[in-house]
Every structure is written in structure tokens, then in C-alpha cells.
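[worker-b] picked up task from shared queue
[worker-b] task type: protein-ligand structure
[worker-b] ligand name resolved to 2-acetamido-2-deoxy-beta-D-glucopyranose; SMILES cross-checked against name lookup, match
[worker-b] sequence length check passed
[worker-b] input payload:
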Amino acid sequence: LITASCLEHVIHLVQRLQEKLGEKQIHKFSLFKVLRTHILPLTNVAFNKSGSRFITGSYDRTCKLWDTASGEELHSLEGHGNVVYAIAFNNPYGDKIATGSFDKTCKLWSTETGKCFYTFRGHTAEIVCLSFNPQSTLLATGSMDTTAKLWDVEKGEEVATLNGHSAEIIALSFNTTGDRIITGSFDHTVAVWDVGTGRLLHTLIGHRGEISSAQFNWDCSLIVTGSMDKTCMLWDAVTGTHVATLAAHSKEVLDVCFDYTGQRIATASADAVFYVDLCIHILGIFQENPFLIRKGSQSFLT
Ligand SMILES: *[C@@H]1O[C@H](CO)[C@@H](O)[C@H](O)[C@H]1NC(C)=O
Ligand SMILES: *[C@@H]1O[C@H](CO)[C@@H](O)[C@H](O)[C@H]1NC(C)=O
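[worker-b] inference finished, payload out:
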């Protein structure tokens, strides 16, 4: 595709991209708006893909939809009988919202009208995490009942129960093609499941404490996990084998994530330190000394 006539332009663009990636940017953040309307504490927030809308979940049993620029409340999604703990847009589409509650149900809502399409019943304990698949055809929910469930977004039916953990499921994530899902549990393991059949493919065993977070990298070749055992672990997503252990925190690791280039992993811990580790090679070795970029109160990065 790169013909002689556009070669120079392509080289120029690649060079600019490389410069951009190499820039050490200092972002300055300032307070934009403060919105106060939930009558009890918030549990979670989520943006739609463009950021023009966001949702908040609360102990007050509601989820509210907001216009980001104006701060206007567009809808209050009411109907749950207990804390709304997990919330999500079906990004990149953004026309649906899912809410998971301590009332053991999950609800699917229209972003446009605020009407409830379906209430998904079947879990026997609190729902604490949820995620749409990338195609937005399935919704996955993780529960304190030790199972995760897959629900058909169009039909409003349960598709599969992912049964295999022996304790609460508190994290889940689809791969980018939506054919695999990982679940992190208080049983100290992460499970890799086949979405089509609901079959358990691998159990990632190694952590000595509850899992707090589990994520794929951009090409889904790696999985990173954070645990109450104070470490992070890296795993080969295809074979389920252990690749590396990152032990720098002195307290529980509460959240982990990859950056979009797959070069770095950020970890947030109860020890009040936030590290960014350099991931030198894919499936590779970690730089021994994590590079400290921020010190402050307990920080979560999502
Ligand atoms: C975000 O929400 C607004 C309003 O519903 C919508 O117009 C826009 O397309 C959404 N963006 C994405 C990418 O979800
Ligand atoms: C998961 O996602 C990756 C990257 O998007 C894809 O290559 C892979 O085929 C998917 N499924 C499996 C089985 O890993």
C-alpha cells in the first residue's frame, strides 16, 4: 500500500508517532465539576467511549446517568433493592447500561430512555463485577456466590454459568475477540474460560492471597493479576503458564492494569505507593527496579 508518492509522508507520520510516544508529558489536572446528588456514597463510575456521558452507582440503590459537559442528571435508574455496586456501558456503542447489585440481580437499561430492558435473576449472592463482551451481545456478571454468569443481551436469558471457583468472584474481563473470559476470585486463583461453551480452560495457580484484579494486555497474549498477597503476576494467556512475579509492594495490591502499548503495568496498593513497571519483552523479563512515579494516598487506576 505504501507507494513511492506517499512514502515520505508515511515516514514523517511514523517519526511523529515515535516522538509522541517518547515524550515525557506532565499532565496537569484541575477540578472540572463537583456533582452532589446521590444521598449515600458512590460505589463506581464509568464513562461512555467518547466521554460525553458517564454513570455513577451508589449505596442509595440507584445508578445515575450524567451529561459530562453540563453536569446535568439525565436519568436516575431506579429499581434495584440494594446497593448498585458494578456498572458499565456497552462500549464502544454506549446505548446500553448494565448495573449489578447486592440484591443479587443485574439490570440492563437503555441509555437513551433510562428504561429497564431486563432484570437478570439467577445469582444467589451479591453481584460485584460485570462486563459486556466487545460485541455487546453478552453480559458477564461475577458474584459472591462463587460463580460468574453469561447473559444474552438481546434475548435477556442466561447463557452459561461459569462454575469452578471455590470463593467469591470479584474481577472479570473478556479478551478483545470475546471468545475468552477470565475471572479472579478470593480462592486465590484466576480462571480462563471458553465463552462459547462455558468450559474452564486453565486455572492460574500461584497467588497466596485473594485476587483483587485480573486483566488482559492489548493483544490478549498476557494476563496480569494483582493479589492481597502483595504481588502481581504475569501469565501467558494462551497456555496459562506463569511468566513473572512482581514483588515490590509492602501491602495488598488492589488494582493492576496494562497500558495500551503493552510496555508497562501500573499497580495500586494499600501501601499508598503507585508503581509503573516496565515490561521489557512480551513474555519477558521485568526490570528489577520499578520506577516510582507517584506517592500519595491509596490510589486506584482503572
Ligand atoms: C456517548 O453518549 C452520547 C449520548 O448518548 C452519544 O451521542 C455518543 O455517541 C456516545 N459515545 C460513545 C462513543 O459511546
Ligand atoms: C483472544 O483475543 C486475542 C487477541 O484479540 C485473539 O488473538 C485470540 O484469538 C482470542 N482468543 C483466544 C483463544 O486467545
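[worker-b] attaching auto-annotations
[worker-b] Confidence is low (pLDDT under 50) at residues 278-302.
[worker-b] releasing lock
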